[in-house]
Amino acid sequence: MASLRLDDQLCFGLYSASRAVTSLYRVVLDGLGLTYPQYLVMLALWERDDRLVKELGAELNLDSGTLSPLLKRLHAAGLVERNRQADDERAVMVSLSDAGKALRAKAEGVPDVIGDAMGLDEAGIARMRKELDRLAESVNAYREALSPAG
């Protein structure tokens, strides 16, 4: 029979690890003037600039109610520009400003700091990332199978 002891629960280990990592990100990103969710948005834009809000939301798994305030704060900080599409007023294009592009150079050391704190080199990070992706895929498939069709 499975134990119901807190220390035996995988969910608690994941929760504790997640809190520790996001807390570290908070400290590291403070020097960049970014929150962790804002950093994720910037990562996506540094990877591929000029994105529709809808595309960003899909990539980051964020709904518009969460993403819109993040983008407003990034815009107010001068890191992104937001422009409505001429052919569709509902569609908003997000682009990096010059300051947003420049911030990328300052952020380049963040992954190394996080990897060092985790005791992982690049290969270890790649293995961990692959395992986390596999875990998320497996859990999402299982959850979908449990959900009533609708």
UniProtKB/TrEMBL annotation:
One of its GO terms (molecular function) is DNA-binding transcription factor activity. SMART domains: HTH_MARR. InterPro entries: HTH_MarR-typ, MarR/SlyA-like, Transc_reg_Sar_Rot_HTH, WH-like_DNA-bd_sf, WH_DNA-bd_sf. It is found in: Cytoplasm. One of its GO terms (cellular component) is cytoplasm. Residues 7-137 form the HTH marR-type domain. Gene3D superfamilies: Winged helix-like DNA-binding domain superfamily/Winged helix DNA-binding domain (1.10.10.10). GO terms for biological process: response to stress. The keyword Transcription regulation applies. Pfam families: Staph_reg_Sar_Rot. Keywords: Cytoplasm, DNA-binding, Transcription, Transcription regulation. This is MarR family transcriptional regulator.
